[in-house]
Structure formats: structure tokens, C-alpha cells
Amino acid sequence: MKRIIVAALAALALVLAVAACGNNTSKGQRLENQQQNEDQTALEYAQPIPHYNYSQIRQNLIELETAQADGVQTTSFFFNLGVRDPIQTCPSIGAPIPTTDQLSNASKVVNDPFTGGSGSGAVVQQMDPNGVYSGGSSGTYVMCVGANGKPYADYWEGYVQTIFGPAEWNSSTHSAQLIGPPSFKFTK
């Protein structure tokens, strides 16, 4: 049954690839596309994608996103590039937040006006399950916890290491060490 589905999908991909080529693609390019599709179909038959009933990496990602959303206790260490020891450390709440994360997506789906509204639109990013749209940034916000127990935001443009639990910096080994129980129960 899997092979029939794979073959049907490969045939559909081939038809779509050829249709997408249209009249603007050279004969050589169409031939190369066809050969690539045939190679992919042959490999999918010979070496089908494995099926798993459980995925540890998926479970860990679910747990990490849950810990991010729940705002568990963490400890964060702030580093300058090329400097071995952190310039600051603080008890923190949750995971570091890249400065480009946002609560709304600035993009939207736009229909192609040349298809009379029946064509496909532009693809936009979807929000992560923890409720934010991730972006790439070297800037990071960390929600540190002050001596009075109240959180404050600390912005840093260097690297940040965050440990999900109480931790401290070991100057002799130049590494962060967990000094208490983890603040979230991860499975192994």
C-alpha cells in the first residue's frame, strides 16, 4: 500500500513538475527534471522512508516547547564572543527570546491577481505551538529574576546559554553546572 501511495505521489510530482515547466523551460532542462524525478521515485521504492510509532526527538521538542510556554525556572549565562567566561549570569524564567520573535505575523497570503482569485497565494510562516513566530537574531531577551524575586528583562546581543534549572558557573572548568533539580521533567 505504501509503495502505491509513494508511486502516486511521485507521478503527481512529475506531472506538476512538467506542468510547471511550461513553454519557458528548455528541452534539456525538462529532460533533466524528468530524470531527477525518476531517480527520486526509484529511491523511494528501493529505500522507502521509515515509519516509526514513536520519535524521541519529537517528544523532546514537545517537552521543550511546553517548558517554554510554561515559563519554568532557568539560569542564563551571557557571553561575549571569544571570551571564555560569561560576563553575567542570572536566575531566569523560561528560554531566551530572540529579538525577532513576534506575536503576530506581518505577512499574509496574497492571491495572484492574474488567476482571477483562483490561484495559489504566497506561503507565510506559521506560528510555533508555543504561540510565537520565530525569527533569526543575535539579540536575545532573557527574563532574569532579581534579588527581590521580581522578573526583569535583560537584552543581550551576544550568546546566551540557558539551563532549565538552578545552575552556576564553574570558573575552573569554564562551564555551567546544574546545582539543583531540573525545573522541567524531560523524558529519555
Protein described:
The strands form two sheets. This protein has a five-stranded antiparallel beta sheet with strand order 4-3-2-1-5. It has a two-stranded antiparallel ribbon with strand order 6-7. It has two domains: 45 residues; 110 residues, no CATH class. It is 29% helix and 23% strand. A hairpin with a 4-residue loop joins β6 and β7. The mean pLDDT is 77. The chain contains three helices and seven strands, in the order αααβββββββ.
Features:
elongated; 188 residues; alpha+beta; five-stranded antiparallel sheet; two-stranded antiparallel sheet; 23% strand; 7 strands
Radius of gyration: 24 Å
Major sheet: arrangement of strands? 4-3-2-1-5
User: Quaternary arrangement of the chains shown?
Assistant: single chain
Instruction: Report the sheet-strand fraction.
Output: 15-25%
> What is the makeup of the main sheet?
5 strands, antiparallel
Low-confidence segments, given as residue ranges, are none
Distance between the termini: 33 Å
Described by the principal axes of the CA atoms, the overall outline is: elongated
Domain count: the total is 2
Total number of β-strand segments? 7
Mean pLDDT, all residues: 77
Structural class: alpha+beta
